Every structure is written in structure tokens, then in C-alpha cells.
TrEMBL record:
It comes from Halalkalicoccus jeotgali (strain DSM 18796 / CECT 7217 / JCM 14584 / KCTC 4019 / B3). It is an enzyme of class 4 (lyase). This is Putative pterin-4-alpha-carbinolamine dehydratase. SUPFAM superfamilies: PCD-like. It catalyses: (4aS,6R)-4a-hydroxy-L-erythro-5,6,7,8-tetrahydrobiopterin = (6R)-L-erythro-6,7-dihydrobiopterin + H2O. Residues 1-21, 72-91 are annotated as: Disordered.
Length: 91
């Protein structure tokens, strides 16, 4: 079981473009068209499946919102930060 990060650790380690929203970290990625966003969501889904750490994703017309939290731990852990960094690499 991973340890929760404290507020200071979360703030100092948030990857570029991500922000904290309660017990989650979130970022909205923008795209030129719907299918580009769908492709991105599929890539993130494949990464999440490989790492067995699944975000909540909301696919909109030209954007995809990605949210990470560690449900079992009840908040934000190293794994959430690491996955956000990897998703940035995909976007």
C-alpha cells in the first residue's frame, strides 16, 4: 500500500499543467478535433492498463480531462504523480 503525499509534497511535485482538486490531480488536454482526443484517451488507457493505475477520463469535443487519485489509499500518492508525468509525455 502506497503512502499518501502531504499537501506540500503534492504542490511541489505536481507535473506541468496539472492541478490539485481535493484528493485528485487533474489536467485538461486540448486537441484540434474530437478523434484526436479519443486517440489520446486510448493511449492513456493503454498506459493505465499496463501500470494498473486507472484515471477517470472525460472525453469532450476537443478536450480530454484526466484525473488521478489512489482510491485504496484515499488520496494522492507517488503513483498518481508518476502517472501524470507519463501522461504528459503522451500529450
Amino acid at each position: 500500500m502506497a503512502e499518501l503525499l502531504d499537501d506540500e509534497e503534492i504542490q511541489s511535485r505536481l507535473p506541468e499543467g496539472w492541478e490539485r482538486d481535493g484528493e485528485e490531480i487533474t489536467r485538461t488536454f486540448e486537441f484540434d478535433d474530437y478523434l484526436e482526443g479519443v486517440d489520446f484517451a486510448r493511449e492513456v488507457g493503454e498506459l493505465a492498463e499496463k501500470e494498473f493505475h486507472h484515471p477517470e477520463m472525460i472525453v469532450g469535443y476537443e478536450e480530454v480531462e484526466v484525473r488521478f487519485t489512489s482510491h485504496e489509499e484515499g488520496g494522492i500518492t507517488d503513483q498518481d504523480i508518476e502517472m501524470a508525468e507519463r501522461v504528459n509525455d503522451e500529450g
